Structure formats: structure tokens, C-alpha cells
Amino acid sequence: MSALVATACAAGSTTEPTDPANATGAPDTSLPPLVGRLLADRPAPAVDVVEVWVCEVPADTTADLYGDLPLRQPLTADGIVERIAAPVARHLDELSHGAATVELVAGGTVAMGRDDTDLECVEAALAASRPDALAVLAVATAEHVEGEPGGWGRPGSWLTCDGTCPARLTGRAAYVGASDFHPGWGPVPLLDLVLHEYLHTLGLPHSGTSTPGDDEYPSALDVMSDSAAPRAVDPDRRDAASTLAVNLLDLGWLDLDAAVTARTGDRTEVDLAPAAGDDGTRLLVLPVDEYRIVTVELRTADGLDTHLPESGVAVHVVDDRAGEDVLRVQLPVHTTAEPFTDLLGPGEALDVEGWRIEVRSVGDVGDVGDVARVVAAGAARLAPATTER
Ligand SMILES: [Zn+2]
After folding, report:
1. Residue 379 pLDDT
2. From ligand 1's centre to the CA of 149, what distance in Å?
3. How far is the CA of 151 from the centre of ligand 1 (A)?
4. What pLDDT, on the 0 to 100 scale, is given for residue 265?
5. 183 and 60, same structural domain?
6. Distance (Å, rounded) from C-alpha 187 to C-alpha 184?
7. Is the pLDDT of residue 388 over 70?
8. Tens of pLDDT along 48-64?
9. Predicted TM-score of the model (pTM)
10. 121 FRET partner, CA 20 to 30 A, in 20, 47, 73, 129?
């Protein structure tokens, strides 16, 4: 769903970016404007209370989303919490390196009227949600007809909200159909779509195409694109891949001091640690202009990303000209071949948006673990794209 999000509020980060290319030792006191906007809106909550509701779809529903599909799952909020609370919490704990604790709690069931839509069910669940719930996750008892999306998620006013921001006031919510809860999947339902929609409620956009708010999911590098990519390789997987380093920065799950911002016209050499790790430099930011940056990160074929054929360097053009948050475009450019798992390896280079990016090495460096040595040089023709703070 292309939920529109209001502009960011004024609070920013006070952390200085590091700059290994800076020979004088003077701190780089600028941030690309897009990075400033990422940091300015509300981060993910440290403890997220998500209330689970069931949308009970009547047999004679007229909603197009369900068509005349006859199957109804006997779902209850308690039963859903029992089945998914632990694996969802585990996944988000791993993705956030302990920064996010997600607590699923049982709400109740909305008995939908014959003409009610998914949206009306979610609004009813929000209105009835407990005051400390920060989001609502609604699951329908019916599957969706072919061609319809499996679900949706929206931040509501969460990103610009002050105070405790309960879901009943912000409208922060996710919704999925019944398909992933089919008993045929076994005791643990498919979780990748739930995780994807949950991350939309924190403002994350899709990635993989150049169209803002696009509903295409070509990238296997991001839970916010082809969330089922890990299961295509390992049918036992229930959860999703990790996400792009820029998203981790956006959510507050990657500190700004774990990112290096190169300066236009300079040559920057950096040893990148895995983006999904919890130590070292995990993101290289190359400023382009007021609305764009290029991100460079090392993705390793382990942890949540065992589906990747090999480790290597991923490069994305991040662009919020069309809007922030769910409208931000995050386009892989290290390869044009979907699903974008052909990552840059040693000796490979890429020219993008006035930058030349060269990968010198990728590999295990003893105690340090996996490291990619990357050199980025900006073309002189680019005007300084950063804003003094
Ligand atoms: Zn989505």
C-alpha cells in the first residue's frame, strides 16, 4: 500500500560521521540531506507492543479482496500470538541486534459485516486496541483472490508523532490475508510477509525498482522486496532476509558512527564489515545531491542471508525526491540482473552517479571476520552535495 507519510520533524542526530579520507584529522561536519531526513523522523520503538487481531470474513462477503473463495481459517488472536510471537521477536532481535524488542499481544476478533473491507476491519481493531499498543497486526480468516497483494502495512502518523503514540491515535497498522496461516505450512506459519508489513509500519519502503511506492518485488537482498527469497532456496525457512543498511540506519538499528560518508571529489578507502553484523563500518554513503545518495554495503551469505549465492558488495541509489519513508526509492545498481544477488567481488568496479566504486578485496580477515575493502572516488564535476549543519 502506498500510504503517504508526512514530512519529518526537526530532531536530528548529534553524532559526527567519520571520514577516513580526511588526512587533516578535522571532523567532517556535513551530512547528506537525505541522511539527515532519515535520522530526523521517529526511529523504531525500543519495545514495540503489537496487538494482534483477527478479521473474521463472513461467508457471503462482497469484498473484492476475498471474492468467493470458500476457505475460512479458524484463527484466534491468542492462537496467532502463540504461533508467531517467539519467531517474529527472534527475527527482529537478530535484524536489529537487540535494539528492537517486539512483543505481540492478543487483541480480539472483528466480526466483519457482509460489505466490510480489510481497511474497515483494521479501523475497528485500532479503535478497540489497548492504550499501550503501538501497532495493530490484523489477520483475515479468508485468503485473497489471485492477483491481490497478500497484505499491507502503514506507519500512520507514527513517524512524526510525539509522546507515547498509541496505535489507536496514529493508525499504525499491518494487515495480511489468511494464506500464510494455512495449516499445510506446519506449526509455524509463513512469517516473511508479516515481517515485511510490520517493517512498513515503521516507514520502510520497497526496494528493487525505480518507481516510488512500486508494488514489484524483484530484489532478494531485502525483506522489503522479495521477502520469500530465502524460502526459494531453503523450503524450511519461514522468516525473511535481512534488509538494506540504509533501512537499518533509518530505523535506528545502525548507528551513524557505523557509517562513513565520503566527500565529493575525495578518494575514500574503507574496510566494510558485514551490513548485517554488529561491529565496524557497515555502510559507505556517497552523496549525490539534495535528494539522492549512493549506498555501498557488504552482504554476506550467512545469518538471515544464507540464500545468497556468495558474499559481496551491494550498491544502491537511494532517492527520496518523490517523498520520504514508504515512497523512498532504493534501486540496486551493482547489477541489472534480478534478483540482484550478483554482488561486486574483488577487482570489480562500478561507475554510478559521478562516483567510481572499486572493490579491492572481499574475504575473511582473521579475527575481524568478513571485510570488503572498497575505494570510492567522486568525480570533480559534482558540486558539493552536503549541507552544513
Ligand atoms: Zn510492501
Report:
1. 66
2. 9
3. 8
4. 78
5. yes
6. 9
7. no
8. 999 999 999 999 999 99
9. 0.89
10. 47
Tell me what the mean pLDDT of segment 192-207 comes to.
97
Whether residue 36 is found in the same domain as residue 58: no
Give every CB contact of residue 211 below 8 A, 6+ residues apart in sequence: 329
Same domain, 134 and 185: yes
User: What distance in angstroms lies between residue 200's CA and the mean position of ligand 1's atoms?
Assistant: 7
How far does the centroid of ligand 1 lie from the alpha carbon of residue 381, in Å? 37
CA distance 383 to 191: 45
Query: Do 352 and 308 fall within a single domain?
Result: yes
- Per the structure, the complete domain to which residue 66 belongs is given by 47-201
Q: Are residues 57 and 38 part of one domain?
A: no
In 129-258, alpha helices (H): 167-170, 192-200, 229-233, 245-251
CA of 201 to the centre of ligand 1 (A): 10
Sign, CA torsion 194/196/200/202: positive
Please report whether residue 157 resides in a domain. yes
- Give the distance (Å) from ligand 1 centre to CA of residue 185: 22
User: DSSP letter string over 311-325?
Assistant: -EEEEEEEE-TT-SG
Q: Ligand 1 mean position to 152 CA, how many Å?
A: 6
1 CA → ligand 1 middle, Å? 7
What is the Å distance from ligand 1's center to 202 Cα?
Answer: 12
Task: Assess whether 130 and 106 both reside in one domain.
Answer: yes
Total tally of structural domains belonging to the chain: 2
In a domain, 237, yes or no: no
**pLDDT (tens digit, 9 = 90+) per residue, 319-354?**
999 999 999 999 999 999 999 999 999 999 999 999
Q: Report how far ligand 1's centroid is from the alpha carbon of 229 (Å).
A: 14
Residues 303-316: pLDDT tens digits?
999 999 999 999 99
**What's the CA-to-centroid distance between 318 and ligand 1, angstroms?**
17
Quote the ligand 1 centre to 227 CA distance (angstroms). Answer: 9
Q: What's the CA-to-centroid distance between 12 and ligand 1, angstroms?
A: 27
Ligand 1 center to 235 CA (angstroms): 22
Instruction: Tell me if 23 is assigned to some domain.
Output: no
The CATH number given to whatever domain includes residue 71 is 3.40.390
Calculate how far, in angstroms, residue 73's C-alpha sits from the geometric centre of ligand 1.
Answer: 23
Residue 98's Cβ-count burial label (10 Å; 0-12, 13-18, 19+) is exposed
3-state secondary structure of 102: strand
The last residue of one of the domains, among 170, 201, 232, is 201
5-41 residue pLDDT tens: 322 222 222 333 333 333 333 434 478 999 999 999 9
Q: Same domain, yes or no, for 262 and 346? A: yes
285 and 157 co-located in one domain = no
The grid coordinates of residue 193 equal 510477509
Domain-embedded: residue 235: no
